[in-house]
Amino acid sequence: MAAESGKHGQGGARAPSVPALRPACTGLVLSGGGARAAYQVGVLKALVRILGERPGSLRANPFHILCGTSAGAINAAVLACGAHHLPQTVDRMLEVWGNFHAGQVYRTDVLKTPRFASNWLSMLAFAMMLARVGRRKQPSLLDNQPLSDLLQEVLDFDRLGANLADGVLQALAIGATGYTSGQHITFYQSAYEIEPWSRSLRTAVRADIGIEHLLASSAIPFVFPARRLLVHGEPEWCGDGSMRQLAPISPAIHLGARRVLIISGGHSEVDPHRRTSSATYPSLAQIGGHALSNIFLDSLDSDIEGIERVNHLLSRLPPEERWKGPLRPIRVLTISPSRPLDEIAARHQDSLPPAMRSLLRGMGVSAVPGELSGATLASYLLFESDYTRELIDLGFGDTLVRSSEVLAFFRTDEE
Question: What's the CA angle centered on 42, arms 153 and 107, to 5 degrees?
Answer without folding.
Answer: 40
